[in-house]
Amino acid sequence: MTQDKNIFIHNIYYMLSYAFQSLRQDGYRNVSVESFDEIYDLFAMILSKGIATQLKQGLYKEYMDRKDDLKVLRGKIDIQQSMRNASMHRQVLTCEYDELSENVLLNQIIKSTATLLLRSGKVKREYKQSLKKELLCFSNVDLIDPKQVRWSRVRFHRNNQTYYMLIHICRLIIDGMLMTTKSGEYKLATFIDEQHMCSLYEKFILEYYRRHYPKLNVSASQIPWAVDDDFTKMLPVMQTDIHLQKGNDVLIIDAKYYSHTTQSQFDKNTIHSNNLYQIFTYVKNKEYTFKDEKHRVAGMLLYARTNEEIQPDQTYQMHGNPISIKTLDLNKPFKDISKQLDDIVKEYFSL
Predict the structure, then answer these.
(1) Alpha-carbon distance 143 to 111, whole Å?
(2) What whole-number distance in Å separates Cα of residue 303 and Cα of residue 306?
(3) What's phi and psi for 242, nearest 5 deg?
(4) How far apart are CA 240 and CA 218, in angstroms?
(5) What Pfam families does UniProt report for this protein, alphabetically (predicted)?
(6) What is the pTM of this model?
(7) CB under 8 Å to 302, separation ≥6 — which residues?
(8) CA 205, CA 183: separation in Å to the nearest integer?
(9) Does 216 share its domain with 341?
(10) pLDDT digits 0-9 by tens, 304-349
């Protein structure tokens, strides 16, 4: 899918900066002007700057349960164990107490992910040095097996919300780029895997339109089923990727990131059937919500462009609704990507 690796890597940064607004802060300003030969360098630089920013605010800490033999009372006494200590002529009390510690899951994930990058032979020395410098402040934080991270245990709230972007970058690295060699060592894959790129691609387009088109109602909304008797038990949720609306004009975009933009059978290239069925279903059910009001509802499948010779670029009129199939070239400079996204809404909403 890539032709100019440096352009593609920079575009991943731009996509991340839309998906995570914190990447637009001053601390990350230099990232956009750096030249990256490897995706690992980009992630190492983002992680290093993110850790540095977090250290200025202080590492997140939680109260942890402790149980130790102490010479002075702290917290609650374990009576039975303290009596055993006395019987063995040990002049200590066994105490149970809470201690504020930075050795928590969020910091363990960051330290373990940074260590993973440090072990990679593809990360440049300058980025490794920055990471090593920041990790000096993690001396009291344990390393954990990156593959054993239980992401369901990660919780964000008011006191640790500054970790949101950092942890998602860590997960992108761990889930999307981690493989195990025969010897049991870790290595990083060539690029982010398709599943994670698809998620980032969707989020980027959604946040791009949110940021640049305040006149539009931009969301990833759900569409209700157009049933005759209100009975919807066991019907799947219709969750859109990008839902753009101005008055009664609606454009529903399904963002798709595949290795192949078309399916091939018997030497014939066609649109992915499931994608087409899905966007058509979204459009027709959304149209039903307007009842007798004047409206326009259209759908679009927006694929990330590949290097394949055949690329879809069509608009079909289906039962009164335009359904477009287009591609977005992530190998072009970001200004070209931005222009194509702008042209889509300008054409449909006349902005």
Answers:
(1) 6
(2) 9
(3) -135, 120
(4) 11
(5) McrBC
(6) 0.79
(7) 205, 253, 254, 255, 256, 326, 327, 328, 344
(8) 40
(9) yes
(10) 987 777 788 899 999 999 999 999 998 899 999 999 999 999 999 9
Alpha helices by DSSP H, the chain: 5-19, 39-57, 79-87, 105-118, 125-135, 164-177, 194-212, 273-288, 334-349
The secondary structure of residue 13, as a DSSP letter, is: H
Residue 93: which residues within 8 A CB-CB, separation 6 or more?
69, 70, 71, 72, 73, 77, 82, 85
Specify whether 72 is located in the same domain as 163: no
Say if residue 138 is in the same domain as residue 22.
yes
Domain count, the chain: 3
What are phi and psi for residue 222, nearest 5 degrees?
Answer: -95, 145
Tokens 């006349």 belong to residue: 350
Chain centroid, CA 11 distance in Å: 15
Query: In the structure encoding, which two tokens stand for residue 325, read together?
Result: 């199939």
CA–CA dist 14, 338 (Å, integer): 10
Q: Which residues span the domain enclosing 250? A: 195-349
Are 182 and 226 found together in one domain? no
**Residue where a domain stops, chosen among 171, 192, 213:** 192
Q: Are 241 and 255 in contact (CB under 8 A)?
A: yes
Task: Show which of 192, 219, 252 is a domain's final residue.
Answer: 192
Element (H, E) at 299: strand 296-304
